[in-house]
């Protein structure tokens, strides 16, 4: 055998031995898992391309292909929520458990968003005085075009407009009620809104006040106790005159009410606690009624209640709203961990008592998603929320109810300058294009009354038949373009009244000297406050009512039969259409300004002279006077309140002066706004006291500061 052959054989043998003795390397041990699945259209289970898929806790974001599939590899083991989003679809998620070396499947179905009707508020109560309110129609999904139409089921309600189309905007519907020659009583109706995105029904209520006899009014005609609520309240009110004797009776043994009878004086009310007893009742829905009878009419309250089976989920705890803006607020609640979990559903309303019949603000089948942001809300509106946790049998456990008010972004006050040298006067606005100012101009050795009118672009002096005497104070009040009056107090002689009928001014001599304020309801219904009296013109004669031993400083009427007056010793009086009565003493002695609103709220500014007394603001709600919080935590006796304008319990403006805070804050004049929860402020454009302020809408207003006219706008 040749040497070469032997070497070759040796090399082959060695290679064989080495390879036989070498062990193959082991496969690496896996330490992660994988999530994969498909994103599908819930309607037809078709795959959705271009959907974004993410996880909580966060890993990576994947986008589905044409087959709707996705894969997220290399995920540490543990519990994850997989969420899918796609434009035009409702977000959704699913919980999965990732295990080492395994692939967890998470198929997610998304619901196609379509135009969805939203109507707010869900109840309109016109009370005894309000005649105009509004509904707001919105496409809550902001997808496509929502075409809607609205109709009322009675003749005393009118709507404008009655139809329309919205996409991403909102559309208001002006709702007007006509009490006309209707008999005293409680009136209820419904506004039905239909659309290509659903149907909504909004109940409305109106009271025609009875000035001659007691009248029963009940706060609601329907109570829904859902499947877990055990008690709710109703309010019984006397919207007439005299003593109202009432009693109630139910038609079902499971309905309990307390008290069941009582007596209510003029303008008063009583709270009735209504409870339901589910013990020993079979699982089903129940309905009953409470009949309220009285010497001022009767009313029927329908009761609905459900008895659920066992297996109810624990009730979530809803925390107060956060991150509140003018159109949104964030909500969060405790997470429900239960193998019978079905879904969450968040409800909202613009009044207390949120239930399953309220508007749905959010829903999800993801047990881990226990927060959301309610958007598309109206600025400056109070909302109430409650979240229900439903089990797999769709039986809901309600949370506590929380509330929050959306902010109103403050606009700016600007100055329009002086108006024909008029100083220290009064202002009244019919609209933003029709504003009247009355004041004084100095010439010929004294002050003389002047009246100016704003036509939307410029001011002009009015030609009036005034006598030309020296004036000491002036007041103006307009209720419409053809209903206005000016009251002038002269130096050493009787006061005069100017009336405007839309064509010309006429002058009337008064038989007294002192005038402090005026409220014009019509040319045949004028009220004037002065010295110790309130004077009333009925179209032919004057009558005066002596109410107190102190001068009347301010009058405010929100309707013909709803009036307020405050005098300098702090006593407040209320007019109910037939007579005046005292509503309490807010003393001590000082200067009082009063402003009332159509929602029944009334605000009083108390300006007490002297550094030892702090000015204050008071509002009357639920039959009692409540002191509003101070404008700032360091408010003291050197600060001064000047004027107030109340459009509602959550829409109050006032002007104030704050003194310098040791160089940390310069002194100056500010406008403050109360939204029902807190004060916010904006700087006045002039360093002068605002003597009168009138707001024409939540976004526009007027004020007088010395010789300057100020205007507010967003």
Identify the notable features of this structure and list them briefly:
1 helix; five-stranded mixed beta sheet; 62 strands; Immunoglobulin-like; about 5% helix; about 725 residues; single chain; mainly beta
Describe this structure as you would to a colleague.
The termini are far apart. The chain is built from one helix and 62 strands. The strands form 15 sheets. Strands 1, 4, 6, 8 and 9 form a five-stranded mixed beta sheet that branches. The protein has a five-stranded mixed beta sheet with strand order 11-18-17-13-15, with no helix packed on it. About 2% of the residues have low confidence. It has four domains: 79 residues, Carboxypeptidase-like, regulatory domain (Immunoglobulin-like), CATH 2.60.40.1120; 190 residues, Immunoglobulins (Immunoglobulin-like), CATH 2.60.40; 77 residues, Sandwich (Immunoglobulin-like); 239 residues, 6 Propeller (Neuraminidase), CATH 2.120.10. A hairpin with a 2-residue loop joins strand 61 and strand 62. With 714 residues, it is mostly beta strands. 34% of the residues are buried. It is globular, with a radius of gyration of 35 Å. It is 3% helix and 54% strand.
Brief rundown of the structure:
This protein is mostly beta strands and 714 residues long. 3% of the residues lie in helices and 54% in strands. It starts with a helix and ends with a strand.
The oligomerization state is single chain
The major pleated sheet works out as: 5 strands, mixed
CA-CA gap between termini:
110 Å
Unreliable parts: 16-23, 610-614
CATH topology type of the largest domain: Neuraminidase
Strand content: over 45%
Structural class: mainly beta
CATH architecture of the largest domain: 6 Propeller
User: How many β-strand stretches?
Assistant: 62
CATH class of the largest domain: Mainly Beta
Average predicted local confidence, pLDDT: 85
Number of domains: 4
């Amino acid at each position: 055998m040749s040497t070469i052959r032997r070497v070759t054989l040796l090399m082959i043998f060695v290679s064989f031995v080495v390879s036989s003795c070498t062990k193959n390397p082991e496969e690496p041990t896996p330490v992660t898992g994988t999530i994969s699945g498909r994103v599908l259209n819930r309607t037809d289970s078709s795959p959705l391309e271009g959907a974004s898929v993410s996880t909580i806790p966060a890993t990576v974001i994947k986008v589905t292909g044409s087959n709707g599939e996705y894969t997220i590899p290399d995920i540490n083991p543990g519990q994850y929520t997989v969420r899918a989003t796609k434009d035009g679809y409702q977000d959704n998620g699913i919980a999965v458990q990732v295990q080492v070396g395994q692939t967890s499947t998470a198929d997610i179905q998304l619901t196609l968003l379509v135009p969805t009707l939203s109507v707010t508020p869900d109840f309109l109560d016109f009370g005894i005085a309000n005649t105009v309110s509004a509904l707001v129609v919105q496409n809550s999904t902001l997808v496509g075009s929502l075409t809607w139409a609205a109709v009322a089921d009675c003749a005393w309600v009118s709507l404008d407009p009655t139809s329309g189309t919205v996409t991403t905007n909102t559309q208001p519907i002006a709702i007007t009620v006509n009490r006309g020659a209707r008999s005293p009583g409680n009136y209820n109706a419904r506004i039905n809104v239909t659309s290509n995105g659903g149907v909504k029904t909004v109940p409305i209520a109106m009271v025609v006040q009875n000035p001659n006899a007691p009248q029963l009014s009940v706060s609601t005609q329907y109570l829904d106790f859902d499947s877990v609520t055990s008690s709710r309240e109703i309010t019984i009110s006397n919207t007439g005159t005299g003593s109202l004797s009432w009693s109630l009776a139910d038609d079902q043994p499971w309905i309990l009410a307390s008290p069941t009878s009582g007596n209510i004086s003029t303008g008063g009310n009583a709270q009735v606690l209504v409870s339901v007893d589910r013990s020993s009742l079979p699982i089903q829905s129940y309905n009953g009624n409470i009949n309220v009878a009285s010497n001022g009419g009767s009313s029927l309250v329908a009761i609905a209640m459900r008895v659920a089976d066992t297996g109810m989920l624990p009730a979530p705890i809803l925390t107060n709203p956060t991150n509140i803006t003018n159109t949104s607020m964030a909500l969060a609640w405790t997470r429900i961990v239960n193998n019978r979990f079905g879904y969450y559903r968040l409800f909202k309303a613009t009044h207390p008592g949120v239930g399953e019949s309220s508007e749905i603000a959010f829903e999800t089948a993801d047990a881990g998603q226990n927060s959301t942001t309610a958007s598309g809300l109206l600025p400056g509106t109070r909302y109430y929320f409650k979240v229900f946790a439903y089990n797999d049998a769709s039986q809901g456990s309600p949370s506590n109810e929380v509330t929050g008010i959306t902010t109103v972004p403050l606009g700016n006050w600007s100055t329009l300058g002086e108006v024909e040298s008029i100083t220290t006067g009064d202002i009244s606005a019919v609209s933003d294009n029709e504003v009247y100012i009355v004041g004084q101009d100095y010439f010929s050795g004294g002050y003389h009354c002047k009246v100016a009118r704003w036509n939307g672009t410029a001011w002009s002096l009015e030609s009036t038949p005034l006598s030309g005497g020296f004036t000491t104070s002036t007041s103006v009040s307009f209720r419409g373009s053809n209903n206005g009056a000016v009251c002038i107090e002269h130096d050493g002689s009787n006061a005069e009244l100017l009336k405007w009928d839309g064509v010309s001014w006429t002058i009337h001599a008064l038989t007294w000297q002192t005038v402090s304020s005026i409220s014009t309801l019509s040319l045949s219904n004028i009220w004037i406050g002065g010295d110790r009296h309130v004077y009333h013109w009925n179209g032919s004669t004057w009558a005066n009512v002596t109410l107190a031993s102190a001068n009347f400083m301010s009058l405010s009427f929100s309707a013909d039969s709803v009036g307020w007056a405050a005098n300098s010793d702090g006593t407040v009086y209320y007019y109910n259409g037939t007579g005046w009565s005292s509503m309490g003493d807010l003393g001590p002695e000082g200067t009082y300004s009063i402003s009332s609103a159509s929602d029944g709220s009334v605000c009083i500014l108390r300006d007490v002279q002297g550094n030892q007394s702090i000015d204050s603001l008071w509002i009357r709600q639920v039959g009692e006077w409540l002191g509003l919080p101070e404008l700032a935590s360091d408010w003291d006796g050197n600060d001064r309140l000047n004027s107030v304008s109340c459009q509602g319990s959550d829409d109050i403006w006032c002007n104030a002066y704050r003194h310098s805070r040791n160089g940390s804050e310069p002194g100056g004049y500010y406008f403050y706004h109360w939204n029902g929860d807190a004060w916010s402020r904006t700087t006045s454009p002039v360093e002068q006291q605002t003597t009168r302020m009138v707001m024409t809408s939540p976004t526009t207003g007027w004020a007088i500061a010395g010789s300057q006219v100020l205007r507010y706008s967003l």
